[in-house]
Amino acid sequence: MKFFEAFDIKEILTATMILFAVIDIVGSIPIIVSLKQKFGKIEARKASIVAGLLMIGFLYVGNNILKLIGVDVNSFAIAGAFVIFIIAVEMILGIEIQKAGESKSASIVPIAFPLIAGAGTLTTTLSLKAEYHDINLVLAIILNTIIVYIVLKSSSWLEKKLGDGTLGVLKKVFGIILLAISIKLFTANFAQLFATYVKF
């Protein structure tokens, strides 16, 4: 009975759109194709499920986990910013920081985390919890997980349709965008940390 009372289509749709914008899986297509070329394969189901579970798990126990290990949300976001920064540098300069041989696929890292369920997405779920009911947020996360799965599953088809030349250009363009996102994420959270720990 409580489920039906809390169930709200408007909340689900709004939360879905917010998370979709934050995850930006469509904008990440060049990154996904680039990672597929580097690692050979992407396990779409595994990446989607892990990302979905991370978001749902963080929704319920995120603050408690971070407090338990003595890490605040800002520090967590900064750590995610560094990982995103490294991916962006690889895309822009064409260098290889993480060797392809170190992993058989890019399913969990960096696709599930931090590309899909990154610091921005996880902190957004915590922010939305203050405004929306849990069940509506969970359904919004599930809907986004399905969208993510469809995009990841289509990576081979997208690779063929876009072509090497187009992918090369898109890789650098989105690499710069990703770099800007990592810097913004870092500076915003560093400023908050600085304000918290340094008192004049």
What does this structure look like?
The chain has 200 residues and is mostly helical. It contains 9 helices and no strands. It has helices spanning 2-6, 9-23, 29-39, 44-68, 73-93, 107-116, 119-129, 134-153, 155-197. α2 (9-23) packs across α8 (134-153), α3 (29-39) crosses α9 and α4 crosses α6. The longest helix has 43 residues, at 155-197. It is globular and about 50 Å long.
| Count of separate structural domains | 1
Low-confidence stretches: none
How much of the sequence lies in strands comes to under 5%
Shape: globular
Radius of gyration: 18 Å
The description of the largest β-sheet is: none
SSE order and pairing:
Layout: H1 2-6, H2 9-23, H3 29-39, H4 44-68, H5 73-93, H6 107-116, H7 119-129, H8 134-153, H9 155-197
Helix pairs in contact: 2-7, 2-8, 3-9, 4-6, 4-7, 4-8, 5-9
Task: Name some characteristics of this structure.
200 residues, mainly alpha, 9 helices
